[in-house]
Amino acid sequence: MYFLYAFSWAVGGLFETEEREKFYKYVESCGGPLPPIQANKISIDKETIFDYYVDHNTKTWKIWEAEQWVPPKRMAFSQLLIPTIDSTRAEFIIDKIAKLPHPRSERRKEPGHLSTLLTGAAGTAKTSVVLMYTSKFDKE
């Protein structure tokens, strides 16, 4: 399951919905341990392996769910950041990369840095995802 999850995102992470569906059908034809998706969910909701992750504790496929949104006390409509499944997935990846051990240059004895690059066309919520991720630091 971990291999299929990593393989799917490495190969098909940038695919659009139609390509992700084709990719899922191909991986399914190879007979791997895929998430249990009903046929109508695939055809109508376009649900694929990209809508799931492997739960580390139970070692089972779990569907991504956006966290519960709590409206702020003072609401400015233009500044509302409401979590979605896509933003939840992106935040998860950013968090995993941020928590990796920082490499060090043994020769120069200086710390290294890990970065995350978000790609996508204009209007795909890249800035919003970063703002949602960084806003969690204020609460801790």
What would you say about this model in short?
The chain is mainly α.
Describe this structure in words.
This protein has 140 residues and is mainly alpha-helical. The chain has helices at residues 2-12, 17-29, 39-43, 85-98, 126-139; strands at 52-55, 60-63, 104-105, 110-111. It contains 5 helices and 4 strands; from the N terminus they run H-H-H-E-E-H-E-E-H. The chain has a two-stranded antiparallel sheet with strand order 1-2. Strand 1 (52-55) and strand 2 form a beta hairpin. Helix 4 packs across helix 5 (126-139).
Between the first and last Cα atoms, what is the distance in angstroms? 33 Å
Written as H for each helix and E for each strand, in order along the chain, the element string is: HHHEEHEEH
The outline comes out as globular
- Give the structural class: mainly alpha
What is the share of helical residues? Answer: 40-55%
Strand content: 5-15%
Tally of distinct domains: 2
Largest sheet: 2 strands, antiparallel
